[in-house]
Amino acid sequence: MGMGAPVQSLELGGSDGGAFEEYLDDCRQRVLDEIRAILPDTRRPGGRLYELMLDYPLRGGKALRPALAIATCRALGGHLEAVLRTAAVLELYHNAFLIHDDVEDGSELRRSEQTLHRLHGVPIAVNVGDGMLAASMAPLLENIELVGLGRALRILQVVARMARESAEGQMIELDWVRSADWTPIDRAYLRMIYKKTAWYTFLAPVCAGAIAAGAGAATERTLVRFATPLGIAFQIQDDVLNLSAGPERYGKELLGDLWEGKHTLILIEAVRSASDAERTRAREALAKPRAAKTAEDVAFLSGLIERARAVDYALAVARRHSERAARSFARLARELAPSPHRDFLAGLVAYVVERDR
Question: Which domain does 339 fall in, by range?
Fold first, then answer.
């Protein structure tokens, strides 16, 4: 059915379920249309703001978060119109977080193009991110008309917690970078990415999708047990891709985590496995601000990672978490009727640890 069809008529997925990537692409197109409907007319005063709000969403991201919300709702028997507006809000939040994250990290590339602050300056980039967050509020209140007051308020609570958890996780990471503190252990790192990544990439989408579908508390708890380890595995794989992915697929700056001195499980393992002299040099290199780091510093850190086989260590941790997610989904799948939406959720486990972008 055409993209211009009334929202209540839209259906996702064909009878054969389609490919995982096709499902993502289908959700992405529908969510982009919904975002365009949410944002004010660009011809109004200050309309340049709304033009730039579409910059990152139109660059070809995966739209994983809205797809996850849609698939959860639909797999549980909910209708697309019950979740589509919330899915669009999650994508707006995601791209706002990316804009702010790029500014905070001094990143140069996002989805194979220059970051927004490189193109337009930090003040405009920050304002665009703020505008995207502001534009997300009204659609969540409009959910009252779509799913009723009780469900709309519960979705709003999920999004509010998602925003808080993400900001707390980001603050933990920024504090580590600022203080050049390389004492964190695995548990501290996993807690940080639970807050920073798992909550807004997996937990909030599945919880919002379940609420929109009218699922019970027991189902929501099973989804949380599925989403939490999946989100952790997702971030670890992202850290691995930062070191090894092909630039044409990854779309972000390779070795950016080393230039920025970010605390990843890979670097934590590499530093603690090093000799005393190597550890001292690594900490000195990582403590330098990005502008002061040299190619030699980054090459040394890369060598340290390779000698410690730290990537293999991190991948093993990611696999353990993805296996936990698979076990939780196996329990959930018994309650779900066969559908393309259930197939998409099942495919997430392999996707998270095998993706190359």
Answer: 18-354
Domain annotation covers residue 334: yes
Structural domains of the chain, count:
1
Question: Tokens 């920073």 map to which residue?
Answer: 196
What CA–CA distance (Å, rounded) separates 144 from 135?
17
CA–CA separation, 231 and 243 (whole Å): 19
- φ and ψ of 277, to 5 deg: -65, -40
Residue 6 lies in a domain: no
User: Cα(298)–Cα(317) distance, rounded to whole angstroms?
Assistant: 24
Distance (Å, rounded) from C-alpha 317 to C-alpha 312?
9
- The CATH number given to whatever domain includes residue 176 is 1.10.600.10
| The token pair that represents 341 in the structure block | 């939406």
Has residue 138 been placed in a domain? yes
For tokens 């665009």, what's the residue?
A: 128
Question: In angstroms, rounded to a whole number, what is the distance separating the alpha carbons of residues 234 and 64?
Answer: 11
What amino acid is encoded at 33 in this protein? D
357 half-sphere exposure, CB direction, 13 A CA radius: 16
pLDDT in tens, 204-230: 999 999 999 999 999 999 999 999 999
- CA nearest to 302, candidates 264, 333, 357, 338: 264
Cα distance between residue 233 and residue 18, in whole Å: 25
Prediction pTM value: 0.90
Q: Find out whether 255 and 305 touch, Cβ atoms under 8 Å.
A: no
| C-beta separation of 97 from 69 below 8 A | no
Whether 57 maps to a domain, the answer reads: yes
Mapped onto helix, strand or coil, the DSSP state of residue 109 is strand
Mean pLDDT, rounded, of the chain: 90
Instruction: Give the integer Cα–Cα distance in Å for 353 and 357.
Output: 11
Beta strand ranges found along 87-169 (DSSP E)? 109-110, 113-114
